[in-house]
Design a protein that fits this description.
Helix content is 72%, strand content 0%. It is built from nine helices and no strands. Helix 1 packs antiparallel against helix 2, helix 2 packs antiparallel against helix 4 and helix 7 crosses helix 8. The radius of gyration is 25 Å and the shape is flat.
């Protein structure tokens, strides 16, 4: 088997996936308070072993690829580097930044993308619908600003401490359009409440439209892949 295919063997892939999940579990356990020193040592040893194995994998991928520089700066190359770099940086930086670097270990989860075809289809769907999504995003930003201006003029006089400016109103718009509804800022005037109803109706559309765009793109890509697979099987 060619060297570049060694890491794609089912056994190696399974071990890699296990190490990723194991590392995430250890990271979560490490945040628990009042852990015994023995548990701390075990977690430290586990982290060292996992990083060592991922480092060997990263170096092997660089060694086995033809265009090494292209791999290093590719998406998967950067993900593989992100999975191991925080461990080595934590030994040479001020300890006050150690907590932030430990959070970067979660970048190791991104290594799962390498082994999931569904992520590839999703990325292709985003690329296929990027123009529609861009137009929709720009339109959404316009709606956000107009809604902030509207609620400001409805509620500023009644609640000057809540809706002090357009920027404060933007926070209300984001919370309302996403239907989160924290309740920290809400309208009390009749006009403001009617305006809020309109904004909520628009918010439902803001969620539904991009979902439909991406879903249709995913369906098109899946149909195309099935067509290609069918034609290949018929040729055989």
């Amino acid at each position: 088997m060619k060297p570049e295919n060694l890491l794609d063997r089912p056994l190696i892939v399974g071990v890699t996936l296990f190490l990723i999940l194991y590392s995430v579990v250890c990271f979560s356990i490490d945040t628990l308070p009042d852990l015994r020193p023995a548990v701390r040592r075990f977690l430290d040893i586990s982290e060292t072993v996992v990083v060592g194995l991922f480092t060997l994998e990263y170096l092997y991928r660089i060694y086995s690829t033809e265009n090494r520089l292209r791999f290093v700066f590719s998406f998967y190359g950067l993900v593989d580097l992100l999975a191991i770099l925080p461990f080595y940086l934590a030994t040479s930086v001020d300890l006050r930044t150690l907590r932030l670097l430990r959070l970067l270990r979660l970048g190791r989860v991104l290594k799962l993308l390498r082994y999931r075809l569904a992520f590839d289809r999703f990325a292709k769907a985003i690329a296929m619908a990027k123009e529609e999504l861009l137009v929709f995003t720009l339109g959404s930003l316009v709606v956000l600003f107009l809604a902030a201006v509207g609620i400001y003029y409805f509620e500023h006089a009644a609640q000057p401490d809540k809706f002090r400016s357009i920027f404060d109103s933007l926070w209300w718009v984001v919370v309302t359009l996403t239907t989160v509804g924290y309740g920290d800022i809400y309208p009390i005037t009749l006009g403001g409440r009617l305006f809020t109803f309109c904004v909520l109706m628009i918010g439902l559309g803001l969620v539904a439209v991009p979902t439909g765009i991406i879903a249709s793109s995913l369906s098109a890509i899946r149909a195309k892949q099935e067509e290609i697979a069918s034609s290949l099987s018929s040729d055989d």
